[in-house]
Amino acid sequence: MDVRSLDDSAGEVDQGPVGPRPAHHGRPDPDIARFIADALGGARRVINVGAGSGSYESAARAVTAVEPSPSMRARRSVGLPRAVDAVAEDLPFADGEFDGAMTLFSVHQWSDVETGLRELRRVTRGPVVVLTCDPDRVRNFWLYGYAPEVLDTEARRHPSVATMAAALGGRGSVRAVPIPLDCTDGFNEAYYGRPEMLLDPAARQACSAWSFVDDGVRERFTTRLRADLDSGAWDERFGHLRGRPYYEGSLVLVRAVPEGEAEVPGPECHSSW
Description:
The protein is α/β, with parallel strands linked by helices. The chain has helices at 30-40, 70-74, 113-123, 148-157, 161-168, 201-205, 215-231, 233-238; strands at 45-49, 62-66, 100-104, 128-133, 171-176, 179-180, 246-247, 251-257, 269-272. Helix 3 (113-123) links the parallel strand 3 (100-104) and strand 4 (128-133). The longest helix is centred in the last third of the chain and has 17 residues, at 215-231. It starts with 29 loop residues before the first helix and ends with a strand. 49% of the residues are buried.
C-alpha cells in the first residue's frame, strides 16, 4: 500500500507530524492491487476518495481522484489525473455518476465516516470498495505483545465493520485481504514474517500509528524485540510465520452493492449483509 495507500489521511488536510512515507517502505503491492481490482468488478469509471498520491489507482480503468490534503495532491505523479479538492462528506458529483468507488485506508481519518460512506453510495451505481482494518482483529497481531499502545491506537481509530455496513446499505461482504510474505507496502502487518524490518525507524514511520505514541514506547519496543530476536524467543513463538506465504490479519475489504444486486460471498468472506 505507496506513501498514501495505507496510512496517510484523507481527513487531516495537512499531514504535519506524520510526514511522507519512505518510498522503499511503501510501494503498492501487486497482490493487494489485484484484490482491489477484482472487487471493483470491471467498473469503468471509478471515484477514489482519499486518493492521496494515487496508490493502487491502476486497479481501475478511469479514476476520478478526490483528495483534500494539498501536500498529498502535490505528491501525485505526473502521469496521474489531478485530484479534486473535496472531502468524502461532501462530494461535488451527481447521483450515480460513477460505476464504482474505492477508498483505501482513509475512512479512519474522515470527520464523519457514516456521512462520507453515504455520499460514496449516492454517487456510485455499482460496487463501493473500502480497504481498511477491522478494529476487532487489530490486536491479534504479534506486535501487540511488544507495542500494545500502537495497536490500541489503531483499533480506536478504525470504524467498526457494522458501522460501515449500515452506512453503505444494500448488499455487501467483508473479506480478509491476504498479505504476502514479501509485501511491498509499508504497514505493520506487512512485516508479519519479517520482524527485523520493524527495528528500522523508517519502516515504523511508514505506519502513522507510530506517530501517535511517545519515544518511550518506541524505545521499549525496539529493546524488547531486538532482545527476543537475539535470544530466539520471537522465533520460538512466531517463527512459523517466516515461511507462511500469506497472512490474514486485520486487513479487510468491505464491498457493497446497491439493493437488488447480488453480492455473492467468496470462500474467504468473513461476513455479509
